[in-house]
Design brief:
The complex is a heterodimer of chains A (288) and B (164). With 288 residues, chain A is α/β, with parallel strands linked by helices. In chain A, 28% of the residues lie in helices and 32% in strands. In chain A, α9 links the parallel β14 and β15. Helix content of chain B is 85%, strand content 0%. Chain B is elongated, with a radius of gyration of 21 Å. The two termini of chain B are 12 Å apart. The chains are: A alpha/beta (288), B mainly alpha (164). Chains A and B meet through α5 of A and α2 and α6 of B.
């Protein structure tokens, strides 16, 4: 049974907004929203059910966006510079804030971002029980099959993955989560912001390739979980972990499994969509 | 008898005034010493641990007895930007002189705004400037501290002699 668990994400978002914008939005507006967007020269937008709804009277200014960024950073840019270089900031409660602005790059390497012109607050969901149906597909004679969750952005991959972690951990599997963006487990003050089970270890803000090796060699996980696999290096690291005897579960941006069928790593392909809301499972394909 | 009591009162008041002036100078030295210690710790927290400013200030306020830094930490934890937090912290203190007050306000403008390396250099500069102020305050205390105390006592004596 799916049950929406309340998080402190809306309160964390409101804390960061300048007073003028904060006055134009209620906490309950954010409870059921997927995103809150601030763009310089445009009204504040709430994204709900895939639809953008303008919220604010008047336009958001560049100064207001700059002020919001500094509040998100807790006035400590140096402490979150690595996140800024990757184009996001994290708030307690698992809220990922995407950044738009001027990128300072040296060749292909991003050194910094400044003159922010847009912010995208991704509001996390904890849908307890949303992965119940999936469990029978990925468990086989006491072992977890290597699984990939595929969907375009905003279709509930992370939410489903989080619930999967909780379920597997609850069944006694030693789960290790490489939480590169602190989004999956939303650890704050040493405590996960979501229920991720009692047998789960978390490597926070850790690059995936390094984290996978670290986890396999020091935490002896049975199941290794990462979110948003990107590029060959990360895929190779996952293959290596699988060859070491760990089961791997990950998510990938995509519209279907066809692009991933050549990878022999995965045994179960779960395709998600928004047919009946975020997190709708469109297809579960098990490799023979 | 009444004259004697009056004379004692005048003498004690004048001496206390001298001691108060000396104490004011000593408090400045003590405050600057505390600030130096606090900013050294802040350097470590920023450069080696990358602790966010508010948390770093809170930790330092617990570690060393520097009322200005405690005020600064408290204001930061209430969500104030560093500039405003420092302004309210220095306003709440009467131990500091005008140069270091201006220095701290100026320093707060750049706190937290850049990467670790730049922040480290910035805090180093603040420490160097505070050291110069500390040296200056110590010199003033040495030169004028005894003078104020002696002036207070001798001034009191002179008044007593004149009044009697």
């Amino acid at each position: 049974m799916r049950r929406v668990q309340a998080t402190n994400a809306p309160a964390q978002i409101l804390r960061c907004l300048p007073e003028r914008l904060r006055e134009q939005i209620f906490e309950k507006d954010l409870l059921y929203a997927e995103e809150l967007r601030l763009r310089a020269g445009a009204p504040m937008m709430l994204v709900r059910g895939g639809q953008s709804v303008p919220l604010s009277r008047g336009m958001v200014s560049v100064q207001e966006i700059g002020e919001t960024v500094m509040r998100i950073c807790n006035n400590s840019v140096y402490a979150v510079l690595e996140q800024i270089k990757k184009g996001f900031l994290m708030l307690p409660g698992g809220v990922r804030v995407g950044l738009a602005g001027r990128v300072l790059a040296a060749g292909e390497r991003i050194e910094n971002m400044k003159e922010f012109t847009g912010l995208n607050f991704r509001i996390p969901r904890e849908l307890v029980g949303c992965a119940d149906k999936l469990l029978s597909h990925i468990l086989q004679s006491g072992k977890v099959k290597n699984t990939v969750l595929i969907s375009p952005p905003g279709c509930g991959k992370t939410t489903l993955l989080r619930d999967l972690v909780r379920l597997l951990s609850g069944r006694g599997f030693r789960v290790c989560v490489i939480d590169e963006r602190d989004e999956l487990c939303a650890v704050h003050g040493g405590v996960p912001g979501f229920d991720i089970g009692e047998n789960t270890d978390v490597l926070r803000l850790c690059p995936k390739t390094a984290g996978i090796e670290l986890a396999v060699r020091s935490l002896s996980p049975q199941v290794l979980v990462t979110d948003e696999l990107w590029g060959d290096a990360q895929l190779c690291a996952m293959e290596k972990a699988a060859s070491c005897g760990c089961s791997v579960i990950t998510t990938v941006h995509g519209s279907g499994r066809s692009a991933l069928m050549e990878e022999k790593l995965f045994e179960v392909y779960v395709t998600l969509g928004r047919r009946s809301g975020p997190g709708s499972i469109l297809e579960v394909y098990t490799r023979a | 008898m009444l004259e004697l009591c009056g004379a004692i009162c005048v003498f004690v008041a004048s001496s206390l005034l001298g001691f108060a002036f000396r104490r004011r100078l000593a408090r400045r030295v003590f405050a600057l010493q505390g600030l130096l210690q606090a900013f050294s710790l802040l350097h470590t927290e920023i450069v080696f641990l990358q602790t966010p400013l508010a948390q770093a200030a809170e930790k330092i306020a617990l570690q060393c007895d520097v009322p200005i830094f405690a005020e600064f930490a408290s204001a930061l934890s209430h969500g104030q930007p560093p500039k405003e937090a420092m302004c309210s912290a220095v306003a709440a203190s009467d131990a500091l002189g005008a140069p270091e007050t201006a220095l701290l306000k100026q320093a707060a403008l750049s706190l937290g705004c850049s990467d670790v390396e730049a922040q480290g250099q910035h805090v180093d500069t603040v420490i160097r400037q505070l050291q110069a102020q500390f040296q200056d305050a110590q010199d003033i205390l040495k030169a004028r501290g005894k003078l104020y105390t002696a002036s207070g006592i001798l001034g009191g004596m002179l008044l007593v002699i004149l009044l009697l």
